[in-house]
Design brief:
This protein is 51% helix and 11% strand. The protein has 207 residues and is an alpha/beta fold. Strand 3, helix 8 and strand 4 form a beta-alpha-beta unit. Helix 3 runs antiparallel to helix 4.
């Protein structure tokens, strides 16, 4: 389901969806929440809500926060390109093309994933959620109060998320930052074995 109305795509709605899934499937049991890129941001938002903090938090390639005074970031440019040039052309420029640092096989998987979604939904998410995402600096007080063990994973060639990942690691008290060599934004595809090993080690430490 992909509503047409832009108002259906907000951080609050996405957080509510994740929290509902968590409650339905885990009940009162301890949970670990996480995600990649925008998914990492939504997982962090749920952890900061204070309603029922997760047992663990995994943030992969967290979305960059909007810089003060910057009117048009990459997310809005991506959305504009989708409307102007079509999703395939825009995605090749912003998500899976040569600039992404993905190997050809990973690039094909990312392209497939994007093309499974209606373009209007991606446009709304880019403009309403990612374009105005709060930076680690803007959330400094809330992050300092987070009492959840957190694994942050980012590729060393991820120009989009590397600085934000480091800023989050500096501000979350129980955070562990792992910078994966020779990986870009889609770090879980670029370095599958390394990322899986990091996840296994982190999860075993929570037991």
């Amino acid at each position: 389901e992909a509503p047409e109305a832009a108002s259906a795509y907000t951080p609050a709605r996405l957080s509510e969806d994740l929290e509902r899934v968590r409650v339905e499937h885990a009940g009162g049991d301890p949970t670990v929440v996480g995600g990649l890129s925008m998914g990492a941001g939504i997982a962090l938002r749920v952890a900061l809500s204070g309603a029922s903090p997760p047992f663990g938090l995994v943030l992969m390639a967290p979305p960059p926060g909007r810089k003060p005074g910057v009117e048009r970031g990459w997310a809005r440019e991506f959305a504009d390109a989708i409307e102007r040039d079509g999703l395939d052309a825009a995605g090749d420029r912003f998500a899976w093309g040569a600039a992404s640092g993905l190997d050809p096989a990973s690039g094909r998987l990312v392209r497939q994933g994007f093309l499974e979604h209606p373009p209007h939904a991606l446009v709304h998410l880019l403009r309403n959620v990612l374009d105005d995402w709060p930076s680690a600096d803007a959330q400094a007080d809330a992050l300092a109060g987070l009492r959840t063990a957190c694994l942050i994973v980012v590729g060393e060639r991820d120009a989009l998320s590397l600085a934000e990942a480091r800023a989050l690691a500096d501000r979350i008290p129980d955070a562990r930052l792992e910078v994966v060599p020779d990986a870009g934004h889609v770090v879980n595809l670029a370095a599958r074995d390394r990322v899986n090993a990091l996840l296994e080690d982190f999860l075993s430490g929570l037991a």
